[in-house]
Amino acid sequence: MQKILIILALLTFSCELKKEAVGVANDLIVFTSTEDRIFTSKLIDNYFNSKGRYCPQFEPYLNVKIKTFNDLEEFYKHRNLLFLSLETPVDTTLDKFLTKFNHVIESKKPVFVSRDLYAYNQVVSRIKAKDPIHFETILDTNLNWIHNQYLKQIEYNIWKKEVKKNKNYELIDLAKNWFDLEIPISMDYIKVKKDSLNNFLWIGRVFPYRWITIHEIDLPNKTNPEIYWDKFDSLIVNTMKNVEISNHYRDHHINQKINRKVLTGVYGQIEANTGGPFVSYIFENKSKKKVYFLTGYVNNPGKSKILMVKELELILEHSNFITF
Known about the structure:
Elements: H1 2-16, E1 27-31, H2 34-49, E2 52-54, E3 58-60, E4 63-67, H3 72-75, E5 80-86, H4 94-105, E6 111-115, E7 123-129, H5 132-163, H6 169-179, E8 181-182, E9 190-195, E10 200-205, E11 209-218, H7 225-239, E12 243-245, E13 251-255, E14 260-269, E15 274-285, E16 290-299, H8 306-317, E17 320-321
Parallel strand pairs: 1-4, 1-5, 5-7
Antiparallel strand pairs: 2-3, 6-7, 8-17, 9-10, 10-11, 11-16, 12-14, 13-14, 14-15, 15-16
Helix pairs in contact: 1-4, 2-5, 5-8
């Protein structure tokens, strides 16, 4: 009980003197008691690890790290926290802590999410259930919403870091003048290839490698995903001889926030025998009867790529046609 009071005092003091949250952007630190862990950890792993993308190995959007109450003092300032508690079985640590914690958050609902509770740019959530069956029911009903709260904060943190970078106005102006596209390109990127004959621009950065390409084509009569996949495949074959788009893990969707068609998949570098994920945003200029494929690629052999492809996707998402 004494340790619970000490940690509560520490957390209360931290609420008054907040600093920026720490840790890897997509680490999810899950706190549960030793007793509850038997019933909750596998469900949490299964739920959160099922949501991700192929890079080409499957990577979850959130890296779940299960901790106990004793680890709270070390990890409470991390970016993404989740507290789990079951009334049955009874434990003497997290249950008592969350009883006190409820007075801080002023919520008795089974699911609670707060931002900036112990640190800035932090998401803290809590799931309190009666027993393992109730816990699984809560997950079934609320998991997508909870997961999205963390993803929104991760995107915010990535983009916040990206906008602080100095911009490469030479490349920004090149994209504007050539394609009528305004792309927030940082100084990390340099020009790799400019092909006026094929209306193609390739820029990139190193360590770890990321590319952005722009391809221009005439607006096709039909603009369904199958047509755009055929066009995209042909463009890569004709302009990037050492790159091969895999037939595996292909997908398409519409980014609802900006109403933009998107292709996703994985690619390989033929000579280097490496590769990674890509995402391609389709910009349709119907007044000029043109289409632009704005595509980001990640190559980070043997290491995680999920945050890098998210960074590229945010750059593409914040790109648009210039206004006159």
